[in-house]
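Data availability (excerpt). The following record was deposited with the supplementary files.
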Amino acid sequence: MTKTYFENLQDIVLSHLNNAQKSVKVAVAWVNFPLYETVFMSLRNRGIKVKVIVNDDVRNRRYQESIQRLETQGIKIKFLRSAGLMHHKFCIIDKRRVLLGSFNWTLSANQRHYEDLTITDEAAAVNPCLEEFKALWTLSEQDLRVLKSPIRCEGCGEPIVNILLMEEDGPYNTKVDVLRACACRQEIVDTDYYDISLFQNYLGALDDFQDRQWRAEARKDMLRLRQIAEERDYFLATYFSSFTRTSRLGCPIIHAVGVRAQRWITKEDEEFYYKILWKERNTASYIEDEYEEL
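Predicted structure:
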């Protein structure tokens, strides 16, 4: 269900916050912390996890006393300063519902401005917000800058990217290579080995999604087919980002994850290439969907 509001927005936000059961994730550019301190404290006292990301500027820093009280009670707050403003206005409740729109959590937004607030439990809206929040929470400000403005090759002038390539290596290992690529050069710069489950968990989940898609296609259930695709994309994003943001194999950043794939050019002739499965935040404009095999 999706509904959009234009009046009494602060009361609506507070009502939904008070109904949270497990977690609240806030990414709102400007928050009047004294206004929301009571509800944040109440959530924390009920054992609900609260994380807040705001833009790092004087408008938010002026509430330092309120922020310190919240942090003392275990509420996690991140001030984000990167290449531009942290300009989001969304809040995810229980990983199942998202509040988003133009509305900042401030007095002026509530009393003076014309603002909008949409609330939805549609996975197509909730999951991307979960991915974005995770990226902003786990990536450093330097990471975000490098992803938005990547280092460029002196030869071709194109971005230099680090692509993690996975493959099964025997019954016990997942082999992980780092392919460093630009428009004029590709090379494997590092190799490491992990438990076979790293690769098999991906394959198992992919098989499960494929089976579910086939069943939906057999029923001609296009809505369910789209939902399964969204669930698959969210799984891949969560699975790969959790690994690459902690296991960088000596690289400052991992831009994407891929696997070795093949396709038939003719009945007798096949071609191998690197298929990209997932791209890190801010890389879609310069990461290709596939790369030539070395």
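Summary of structural features: Residues 222-244 form the longest helix (23 residues).
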